[in-house]
């Protein structure tokens, strides 16, 4: 990773060494805080290095910050306070020139969706030179899985089961975002999803609380580095708090009605993990939680987030969510909406005028107390302080003379990490007769509507990713086989045939229509593809979803492979040529046919800027796949929700023992088509000899579980050993099993290694009926496996 590329001109701050009166060194954060205080006291927004005063004693950085923010608040008018609660996007209603005036008038806290330094600098200059109090702006953006470089979508990143991969993605993204003057990202998105009909499943890390929590932590570490006040770090704002992934029926923006137990056991832990890792911000969900919209939910925002969890950062509403309180039917009008949101503690209002229009009147009438308004302002100013912006408003933007000439230039991309990371996210689902890896020889037919799409391979929320800079599957394969094998191509089908659906997808919030249809009749396209396939030694079909199908506001009623593409696959299968099916999609699909008929099946998700190269690395064996599914693949939409960690029930379906009056569907096989944690390798791995270090432990003690992982095949590669724990008898019904650890282990052919996991209170605790975390005595079953279904099991007793 190239850190130098991410260092704006204000690097000099790195070398500042500060001494207090006693000559003791101060941490850089303390020093910045003290400098900011002094700078502000001196009436200067930017404190020139040469004029920095000797530091006053600052024993407590939190106290220094508080003093600084309090002093500032004391000088603010109500209008200026309200201004600090507004997060604005440049758009038709707020053109750049108008925004400049608003900033100068002290009516804006920050902007999002403006990511070019040239555009942002005048805004910041207006803030620090023209506004009365010279409070700097901050610039936010959805840096979700990359910035200029697009990395695989989060669902794919989770499939790596490798937290170093996720941290690296976030680190590189942060460096790129800083280079564009971005201070904060609306990420990570850690909404657990058990319903693949929900389009935003693609944007999260899957179904499992443990895995998603790990991903949340790794993301925050990557975005924020040692602290969000560095020139190459950005502040994270974890989203969408809370439970957005559980919208009813997978319908985006819908309601969430959930038992407190399930909340605490499954859906809340990832947000908590991100907050414990230091996420400076929290974005509030658009949905309601048990009848009360998150945006006006004082239990959620105050009792849980602030009091119980001790969150000390800034909260931001989702887009337009405060106005939407009227549509939820909990506020009569915008005035009441603003009141409810302030009282709930929604500090920043994203993209609506409600606070501006209503809060001054609410203060005047006494319906909102000044202390309540100040509490919100305090967090916004505190976040700016934590982002290092009071010390240097241009910390990330640097100097004009250093602005990139071409913001989209290729040399601003981080292609190497993008390729390396993408390779870790591709899941091998089938590989009959060792169809893969392919040889770089003979004739290869590449078919399918997604084979040459630079746009779709980026996935949704691809920030500043540029389709023309993305390596398509076709480009990646061409490069890999150059001079060695022949490539024949045909589109074969459109992704979708229904013009109404195409119209809907093109109506989503893109710059231009994205789904461009080949006007030829499907039969003509298929015939062409079959002709090409008949001339080849092997056929690769790239099929799935255009990126807009796995996006915000893209809920699906079915998770089938769209009909046109299934028809194409069936025709290709009929040629009798080996068929490699390469899936590109952002949610589990019902791929029973593909499972049964493909000679090799690869889940590639959306792999990003270097996707085509990474996919070619796998196809031709330059990299051995090791990713695992972070979400179960149901057999059909009717089986939703299907997740591995279901609660125990009284009449479970037992495989091999069918019978009436057990929990099952009678028209279809039971259980996931592909279970959570599943993924193959080109090599053959075995896991044997599970041993526990004790058969009984006392409370507070730990034991070790170990097993031997052997690479019995002929390819070097990695596999993910997964630890599951089941608590079969407890005070409440517990999940049949729960992931509690994993280790990715690389082995050479023939090599074996003993993999160990420590098991103690952290792995055994759960939230009981009184919503208390407890460890209960009794039997525990320890399972180690290479997926969630096929496991070795041993039991021990606690107590
Ligand atoms: C999404 C958020 C996003 C925001 C700003 C909203 O529509 O729900 O996830 O951060 O837009 O782009």
UniProtKB/TrEMBL annotation:
Residue ranges of the region described as Disordered: 1-24
Catalytic EC class: hydrolase
EC assignment: 3.2.1.21
Gene3D superfamilies: Glycoside hydrolase family 3 C-terminal domain, Glycoside hydrolase, family 3, N-terminal domain, Immunoglobulins
Keyword Hydrolase: yes
UniProt keywords, alphabetically: Glycosidase, Hydrolase, Signal
Reaction catalysis annotation: Hydrolysis of terminal, non-reducing beta-D-glucosyl residues with release of beta-D-glucose
Pfam families referenced in this protein's UniProt entry, alphabetically: Fn3-like, Glyco_hydro_3, Glyco_hydro_3_C
All copies of domain Fibronectin type III-like, residue ranges: 719-788
Family designation: Belongs to the glycosyl hydrolase 3 family.
Protein name as catalogued: beta-glucosidase
Source organism (scientific name): Bosea robiniae
């Amino acid at each position: 990773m190239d850190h130098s590329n991410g260092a704006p001109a204000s690097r000099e701050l790195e070398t500042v060494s500060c001494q207090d009166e006693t000559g003791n060194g101060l941490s850089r954060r303390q020093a910045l805080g003290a400098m900011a205080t002094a700078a502000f006291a001196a009436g200067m927004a930017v404190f020139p290095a040469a004029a920095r005063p000797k530091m006053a004693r600052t024993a407590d950085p939190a106290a220094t910050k508080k003093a600084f923010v309090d002093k500032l608040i004391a000088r603010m008018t109500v209008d200026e306070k309200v201004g600090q609660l507004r997060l604005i996007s440049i758009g038709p209603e707020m053109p750049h020139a108008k925004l400049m005036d608003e900033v100068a008038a002290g009516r804006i806290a920050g902007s999002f969706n403006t990511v070019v330094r040239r555009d942002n600098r005048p805004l910041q200059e207006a803030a620090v030179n023209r506004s009365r109090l010279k409070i700097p702006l901050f610039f936010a953006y959805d840096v979700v899985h990359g910035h200029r470089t697009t990395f695989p979508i989060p669902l794919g990143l989770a499939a790596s089961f490798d937290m170093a991969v996720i941290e690296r993605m976030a680190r590189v993204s942060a460096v790129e975002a800083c280079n564009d003057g971005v201070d904060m990202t609306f990420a990570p998105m850690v909404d657990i999803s058990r319903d693949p009909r929900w389009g935003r499943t693609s944007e999260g890390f899957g179904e499992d609380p443990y895995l998603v929590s790990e991903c949340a932590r790794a993301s925050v570490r990557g975005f924020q580095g040692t602290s969000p006040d560095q020139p190459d770090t950005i502040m994270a704002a974890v989203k969408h708090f809370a439970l957005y992934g559980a919208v009813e029926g997978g319908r985006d923006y819908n309601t969430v009605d959930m038992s407190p137990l399930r909340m605490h056991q499954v859906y809340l832990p990832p947000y908590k993990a991100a907050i414990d890792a230091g996420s400076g911000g929290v974005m509030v969900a658009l949905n309601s939680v048990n009848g009360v919209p998150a945006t006006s939910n004082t239990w959620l925002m105050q009792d849980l987030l602030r009091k119980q969890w001790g969150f000390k950062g800034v909260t931001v509403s989702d887009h337009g969510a405060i106005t939407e309180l009227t549509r939820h039917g909990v506020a009569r009008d915008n005035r009441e909406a603003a009141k409810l949101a302030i009282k709930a503690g929604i500090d920043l209002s994203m993209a609506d005028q409600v606070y501006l229009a209503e809060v001054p009147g609410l203060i005047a009438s006494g319906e909102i107390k000044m202390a309540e308004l100040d509490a919100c302002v305090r967090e916004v100013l505190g976040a700016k302080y934590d982002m290092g912006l009071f010390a240097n408003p241009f910390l990330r933007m640097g100097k004009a003379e250093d602005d990139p000439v071409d913001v989209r230039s290729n040399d601003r991309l981080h292609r190497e990490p993008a390729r390396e990371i993408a390779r870790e996210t591709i899941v091998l689902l089938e590989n009959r007769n060792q169809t893969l890896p392919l040889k770089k020889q003979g004739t290869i037919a590449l078919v399918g509507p997604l084979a040459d799409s630079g746009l779709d391979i980026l996935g949704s929320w691809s920030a500043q990713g540029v389709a023309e800079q993305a390596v398509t599957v076709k480009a990646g394969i061409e490069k890999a086989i150059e001079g060695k094998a022949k490539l024949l191509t045909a589109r074969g089908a459109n992704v979708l045939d229904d013009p109404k659906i195409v119209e809907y997808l093109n109506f989503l919030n893109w710059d231009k229509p994205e789904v461009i249809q080949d006007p030829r009749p499907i039969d003509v396209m298929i015939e062409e593809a079959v002709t090409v396939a008949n001339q080849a030694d092997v056929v690769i079909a790239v099929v799935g979803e255009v990126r807009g199908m796995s996006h915000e506001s893209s809920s699906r009623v079915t998770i089938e492979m769209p009909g046109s593409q299934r028809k194409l696959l069936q025709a290709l299968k009929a040629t009798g040529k080996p068929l490699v099916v390469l899936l590109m999609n952002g949610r589990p699909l019902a791929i029973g046919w593909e499972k049964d008929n493909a000679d090799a099946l690869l889940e590639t998700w959306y792999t990003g800027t270097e996707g085509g190269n990474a996919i070619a690395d796998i196809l031709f064996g330059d990299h051995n796949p090791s990713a695992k599914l972070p979400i179960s693949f149901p057999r059909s939409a009717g089986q939703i929700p299907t997740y591995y960690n279901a609660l125990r029930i009284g009449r479970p379906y037992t495989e091999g023992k069918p019978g009436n009056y057990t929990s099952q569907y009678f028209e279809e096989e039971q259980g996931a088509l592909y279970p959570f944690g599943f993924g193959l390798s080109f090599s053959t791995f075995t896991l044997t000899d599970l041993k526990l270090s004790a058969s009984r432990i006392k409370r507070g003690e730990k034991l070790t579980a170990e097993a031997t992982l052997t690479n019995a095949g002929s390819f070097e590669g990695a596999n993910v050993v997964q630890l599951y724990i089941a608590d079969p008898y407890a005070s409440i019904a517990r999940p049949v099993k729960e992931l509690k650890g994993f280790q990715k282990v690389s082995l050479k052919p023939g090599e074996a290694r003993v993999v160990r996991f420590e098991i103690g209170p952290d792995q055994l605790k759960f939230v009981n009926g009184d919503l208390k975390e407890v460890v209960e005595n009794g039997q525990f079953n320890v399972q180690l496996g290479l997926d969630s279904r096929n496991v070795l099991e041993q039991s021990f007793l606690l107590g």
